[in-house]
Amino acid sequence: MKNNLARPLLSENSDIAQKVGEIIQAVRVGGDNVLIDLTEKFDGVKLAELQVSPAEFENINISDESKNAIIFAKNQLEINHATQLPKPQKIQTCEGVICERQARPIDRVGLYIPGGTAPLISTVLMLAVPAQIAGNGLKILCTPPNKQGQTDPHILFAAQLCGIETVYKIGGAQAIAAMAYGTESIPKVDKIFGPGNRWVTQAKQLVSQDSEGAAIDMPAGPSEVMVIADDEANPAFVAADLLSQAEHGVDSQVILIALSEQFIGRVRSALESQLEKLSRKNIIIQALTHSRMIVAENINQAINISNNYAPEHLILQINHPEKYTDKISNAGSVFLGPWAPETIGDYVTGSNHVLPTYGYAKNYSGLSVLDFMKFISFQSVTKSGLVKMGPYAEILSSIEGLDAHKNAVSLRLAELNNG
Amino acid sequence: MKNNLARPLLSENSDIAQKVGEIIQAVRVGGDNVLIDLTEKFDGVKLAELQVSPAEFENINISDESKNAIIFAKNQLEINHATQLPKPQKIQTCEGVICERQARPIDRVGLYIPGGTAPLISTVLMLAVPAQIAGNGLKILCTPPNKQGQTDPHILFAAQLCGIETVYKIGGAQAIAAMAYGTESIPKVDKIFGPGNRWVTQAKQLVSQDSEGAAIDMPAGPSEVMVIADDEANPAFVAADLLSQAEHGVDSQVILIALSEQFIGRVRSALESQLEKLSRKNIIIQALTHSRMIVAENINQAINISNNYAPEHLILQINHPEKYTDKISNAGSVFLGPWAPETIGDYVTGSNHVLPTYGYAKNYSGLSVLDFMKFISFQSVTKSGLVKMGPYAEILSSIEGLDAHKNAVSLRLAELNNG
User: Fold this and answer.
1) What is the dihedral of CA B240, B241, B243, B249, to 10 degrees?
2) How far apart are CA A358 and CA B210, in angstroms?
3) Is A318 helix (H, G, I), strand (E, B) or coil?
4) In whole angstroms, what is the distance from residue A356 CA to residue A192 CA?
5) Are A124 and A162 in contact (CB under 8 A)?
6) What's the first-to-final CA gap in chain B, in angstroms?
7) Active-site residue B297, yes or no?
8) Helix, strand, coil shares of chain A as percentages rounded to 5?
9) Best to test chain A binding among B61, B99, B216 (most A CBs inside 10 Å)
10) Which of A362, B31, B34, B102 has the maximal Cβ count within 10 Å?
11) Number of CB atoms found within 10 A of residue B39's CB
């Protein structure tokens, strides 16, 4: 069963690694000029200014329908992500000793939004809403320009709505390098968020391994969905959910676990008829070549298969899905029942759609406000606290052979005894 | 000021990177036999069994004084870390839509405890207590054996106290490789925790970049302390705290920010006289060569310097340190006042001593229960929830050019309209 669900192998990219390394080095040395050159080379436009101007923000012209949809999605995300803001943890561990853990926003964060044929406004919201709630001091956004050197107005509208008006028209590995190390006009950040192609992913990995670079949100891989469906599920719904994942890219993986071959047959029929009308049919057909439809004996076995696979998205189109949530141990985001297609979570439930892919759901979480913050520990110790704890610390530092550690306690205890 | 506080450069280790890569590959191919060979090569002992036997746990023979100190430290950690266990977050984002986020323990975790001249029992507790609270299904521990092929009984006592009885006598890059990929006798884990030398650090970095490997706790660098002291602080205490950090290793960095040259002079005198009696004097003297003592105009300026440096440990030996905690934005762990030496936090306050070094406190947190868990998102949507949200999702997926996404919503809405 396990081999059946092997993920598509990612092609070796040592060539990309080297080229990305060269781009990063070029940006570190050459700054803005190199960014302008690389944007001309890769995006086909010679920029006069890297940064989106105030006038471009003032002249955003999109439909009210689009605005309302973006505002609705943003509000949903705000409601849900506000619950993630951590409360200070403070406790007296023994008399005279208080341990406290306080969250702080990471000072400076950089958001990356890929380019392409259509503006990924939902990704802007998924990154910018938790950043706004975390309260990062500096928030910048990079996204590649179109051939006219412009940024899509939907992207600008979504960014502005979340309090981000520092947007740069650069993309690819050069954008990651610019945010990780800074240039004349682009400030260095402490952590970089957002999806991207192989070049962006490789650049994020490289800068995250350099202590002078920047941390990153999470490792990346192709997107994927697993649907667990019983025989009473609607085959058209299941087919539509598989197709919506498959359209993301040729390396997307979609998996159906059903309880009978008959149901799989019904899904296949629905899938073929729906596919004909879809604009991204060619991408979908390629993605479907490494997809799987398998039969499990029962829902519990299906959940076990899912836990081993650790899908980014898991859709339960089964009776009483809520009975099984406690058994799900590895998954990014889970959709319960027939009325929760993945699409709805990608855009408007308020849940974050930046999720661990490629099995990383075993050890990583979906994006949250916590990713935009870090914790600082505080320890307050009174004289009586030190008197109580000190002797134990002396014994433990002796066992570890660290007598300067012991001395820092002993001379304080001596002072207290003398005082 | 900034250059003044440059951290010691880490020497290039491309040679280590290659050797570590070879060790990892050898372990993946050769399994247990390679582990036995490498342990003979690096630790000087030919092991008959990789795993610590039940008899070795039964025959633990350490003093009651040591046991009591370990138990005290463990209880302190438990009290503090229990506050970190996350509660489920559940909220209705709009009518008919519930978003929930639940924490789950990472299935399998591996803890690494370095060898050396003395047993690092405190590190066992710092890793094993949060793992016990998180409730990971599988917990294993690797630590190099001594020349007689034995594991220090203090380590075994601390591990057993925290519910870990699966301990392997292997160290170095080979231990990290074994836990990341598994061998005949050592189970593969999902995430690896713990400090180590360059080889271990390099191995952790390599396996964390491989989707078939394992995640790791945090990036590592040399340990460091910054002390901010006013003129009323006790120079002997300040000197002792600087020395206790300096004894960790020759690349440790210790920094004092004082308000006058006079005070720095008093600290230097105290430091010289204390140094003479310390067993790790030679290490300390080397560490002090890249340490700094600087004068700030006032406490606020000192805090600014500290925030830019982002120290692993920050000790505030100043009047009313609690007045300044809100201004501290980057630090691993902060010690407030004269009776809170770093030693006490290293062992017994209950705070975790596994902390971000080398400036990583800007974007990473000290170890907590959260690091042993991950979150899963759940989304429940009723018919009316879909009717409310669906049209917005349709608009947003249209803007993004993803019509299979839109279709997954549209055909459900059509079903509801027909039904």
Assistant:
1) 160
2) 11
3) coil
4) 16
5) yes
6) 72
7) no
8) 45, 15, 35
9) B99
10) A362
11) 24
ipTM: 0.96
| 8 Å CB contact of B403 and A278 | yes
Q: Which residues in A lie closer than 8 A to residue B350 (C-beta atoms)?
A: 91, 93-94, 97, 99
DSSP label of B11: P
Number of H helices, E strands in chain B: 15, 13
A184 near A120, Cβ under 8 Å?
no
DSSP A29-92: HHHHHHHHHHHHHHHS---S-SBPPHHHHHT----HHHHHHHHHHHHHHHHHHHTTSPPPEEEE
Q: Which residues, 6 or more positions from B178, have their beta carbon under 8 angstroms from its beta carbon? A: B27, B35, B142, B168, B170, B186
Which token pair is A41?
């080379």
Burial degree of A17 (CB within 10 A; 0-12, 13-18, 19+) = middle
CA-nearest residue to A98 within chain B is: B349
CA distance A304 to A310: 10
Tokens representing residue B22 in the block: 């070879």
Q: How many angstroms separate the CA of residue A64 from the nearest CA in chain B?
A: 11
Pairwise CA distance, residues A124 & A106, whole Å: 18
C-alpha to C-alpha distance for A291 and B9, rounded to whole angstroms: 48
Catalytically annotated residue among B313, B320, B322, B394: B313
From residue A30, how far is each of A34, A38, A141, A177, B55 by CA, in Å?
A: 5, 11, 21, 11, 63
Residue whose entry in the numeric block shows the structure tokens 């003093």: B63
In angstroms, the CA A261 to CA A243 distance is 19
- From first to last of its 419 residues, chain A has per-residue pLDDT tens of 444 677 777 665 678 889 999 999 999 999 999 999 999 999 999 999 999 999 999 999 999 999 999 999 999 999 999 999 999 899 999 999 999 999 999 999 999 999 988 899 999 999 999 999 999 999 999 999 999 999 999 999 999 999 999 999 999 999 999 999 999 999 999 999 999 999 999 999 999 999 899 999 999 889 999 999 999 999 999 999 999 999 999 999 999 999 999 999 999 999 999 999 999 999 999 999 988 999 999 999 999 999 999 999 999 999 999 999 999 999 999 999 999 999 999 999 999 999 999 999 999 999 999 999 999 999 999 999 999 999 999 999 999 999 999 999 999 999 998 86
Q: In this structure, what are the phi and psi dihedrals at residue B315, rounded to the nearest 5 degrees? A: -110, 125
Reading the block at residue B270, the tokens are 């105290």
> Is residue B312 flagged as an active site residue?
yes
Written as six digits, the tokens of A127 are 């990154």
* Minimum CA–CA partner of A114 in chain B: B400
Strands (DSSP E) found in A280-405: 292-295, 313-317, 333-336, 373-381
Quote the distance between the C-alpha of residue A143 and its chain's center. 16
What phi and psi, each to the nearest 5 degrees, are found at residue A305? -60, -45
* Complete DSSP assignment for B62-106: --HHHHHHHHHHHHHHHHHHGGGSPPPEEEEEETTEEEEEEEEE-
Characterise B135 by phi-psi region: left (phi > 0), alpha (psi -120 to 50), beta (else). left
